[in-house]
Amino acid sequence: MKNKKNAFTMIELVFVIVILGILAAVAIPKLAATRTDATIAKGRADIASIRSSIVMERQARLVRGDPSWIPKLSNSTTTLFTGSDVNRTLLMYGIASGDWTTTVANAGLVHTFTVNGTAVTFTYSNTTGIFTCDTTAGTTAQQELCASLIN
């Protein structure tokens, strides 16, 4: 008389669970790295948009006969990159404030980009129109993040 097998044995189930655990242990760190890479890519795109907007605003000012750069990139710490005039936005589509913050410092407003708890401070010079971070300041993680954002 033959026995019909209608279910999986306990060993088969344990074997499948172990394989799934191994696959998950390999995949989860890869997904976390991919998320960090995506955030850095978003930061690069934001920085490129900000720099492009600074140049476009400079050109518009030159056409109007004003040779100065934008005095500041924000009007307050609650709005990001709103430009120098209250009714004028620096960026046409704006930037989601999730990774960017603006705080008040000695010389004015400071813009900070954060990835996985590592914050990099960006400064804007209203005499040269340069928006950048310092690759020699802060911790090693901050220096590496700054370099990866501006290069």
* Mean of residue pLDDT values: 81
Overall spatial form:
elongated
Strands side by side in the biggest sheet: 1-2-3-4
Tell me the β content. Answer: 15-25%
Taken together, the total number of domains comes to 1
Find the count of extended strands (DSSP E, 2+ residues). Answer: 4
Largest sheet: 4 strands, antiparallel
Uncertain parts: none
Strand-pairing-aware structural class: alpha+beta
Helix-strand pattern, N to C? Answer: HEEEEH
Radius of gyration: 25 Å
Distance between the first and last residues' Cα? 74 Å
Percent of residues in helical segments? 40-55%
Oligomer category: single chain
- The number of helices is 2
Topology:
Elements: H1 10-63, E1 100-105, E2 108-115, E3 118-124, E4 131-133, H2 140-150
Helix pairs in contact: 1-2
